[in-house]
Amino acid sequence: MVCDVSHPLVEFVLTRIAEDEAVARAVMGRGVHDNRPEVKEWIGLANPNRMLVWSGVRRRLVELHANGITTSDGDAACQQCGPPAPCMTLRLLSTLYGDHPDFQEQWRPLTTSPR
Ligand SMILES: [Zn+2]
Asked: Which one of 9, 45, 62, 92 counts the least CB within 10 Å of its CB?
């Protein structure tokens, strides 16, 4: 399996990141009318600016691991991690959206289950 920017897993993750960013930008500057401390704390954790920072980090990780190479054995490999492709980093990132209807179970890491 060749892993590059056109791989379905990469496209899936980048699309979800773009959706997260769109939601963050849509609610930027809007308030919440629930002043309970636990709600304010949650909103502080999930605020739009923080979501955009997280999205930028996720996007950069995808960029670092989306470039595939072919090994001397002919196997597809991540340029950063080696074989197999898609690498564990991309698989783990995809599980952030494991409940999305377009998520494919074969992308889930075989040795780690971060559910
Ligand atoms: Zn990698």
From this structure: 45
Per-chain residues with Cβ under 5 A from ion ligand 1: 65, 78, 80-81, 87, 89
Residue 61 CA to ligand 1 center (angstroms) comes to 9
pLDDT of residue 3: 47
What's the rounded Cα separation, in Å, for the pair 41 and 39?
A: 5
State the residue range of the domain holding 31. Answer: 8-107
Compute, in angstroms, the gap from residue 90 CA to the centroid of ligand 1.
Answer: 7
Residue 2 lies in a domain: no
Of 3-7, 28-32, 101-105, the range with the lowest mean pLDDT is 3-7
Domain count, the chain: 1
Q: Work out the average pLDDT over 69-86.
A: 87
